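F.,

This is the one I mentioned.
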């Protein structure tokens, strides 16, 4: 009888998970918000089992099921265990790899080879009509807070990140491109399909090519 009950629980969790999955691999909070805590816990177990990821403790899973759904919209609840974590973003919760600590390094940008940065890799590509036309005195820096970039008018990174729905766990990891102490580019993030942000005064004119910066990071598991 126990095996039959276990099989039924697994079948329900499979069906719940299929209903709750978003197109980009997240678990939709509006769906699991209709479930009991125990049902959400079983769904999370099924999800982690499919990913072949070790389980947190029962208590952690229960707290995660309660907090992820109940926390207010602007909160940033998370569950960390082993080398993984659950975080919330735009109405979904995502399974993430724990990323390495961010080194407070300024890196001269010389040459066009990929550069490892904060757990990801920055690449740059020359594209006609996009990006920026740049000189030689370039540097990559981590975010410190309070930065702004010259678009049609000066805009703070905080506002830009909010408008573009950049996940909060990536906002401090994005390598910022400075030219002569001035922020000129914020790379796009390939895994979240976000485009880069570039200083208006350095954008290429018609027929001219500019450098496009992309940050590749495997944050979602």
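My design for it:
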């Amino acid at each position: 009888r126990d095996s039959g009950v276990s099989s039924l629980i697994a079948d329900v969790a499979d069906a719940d998970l299929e209903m709750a999955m978003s197109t980009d691999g997240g678990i939709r909070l509006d769906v699991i918000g209709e479930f009991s805590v125990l049902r959400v816990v079983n769904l999370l177990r099924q999800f982690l089992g499919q990913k072949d990821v070790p389980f947190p403790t029962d208590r952690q899973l229960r707290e995660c099921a309660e907090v992820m759904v109940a926390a207010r919209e602007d909160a940033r609840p998370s569950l960390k265990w082993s080398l993984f974590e659950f975080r919330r973003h735009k109405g979904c919760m995502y399974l993430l790899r724990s990323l390495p600590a961010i080194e407070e390094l300024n890196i001269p940008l010389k040459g066009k080879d990929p550069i490892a940065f904060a757990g990801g890799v920055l690449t740059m590509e020359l594209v006609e009509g996009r990006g920026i036309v740049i000189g030689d005195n370039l540097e990559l820096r981590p975010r410190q807070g309070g930065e702004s970039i010259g678009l049609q008018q000066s805009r703070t990174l905080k506002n830009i990140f909010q408008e573009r729905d950049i996940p909060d766990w990536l906002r401090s990891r994005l390598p910022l491109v400075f030219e002569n102490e001035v922020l000129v580019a914020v790379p796009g993030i390939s895994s979240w399909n976000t485009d880069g942000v570039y200083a208006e005064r350095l954008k290429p004119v018609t027929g001219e090519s500019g450098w496009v910066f992309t940050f590749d990071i495997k944050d979602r598991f």
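The first strand starts at residue 27 and ends at 28.

Talk soon.
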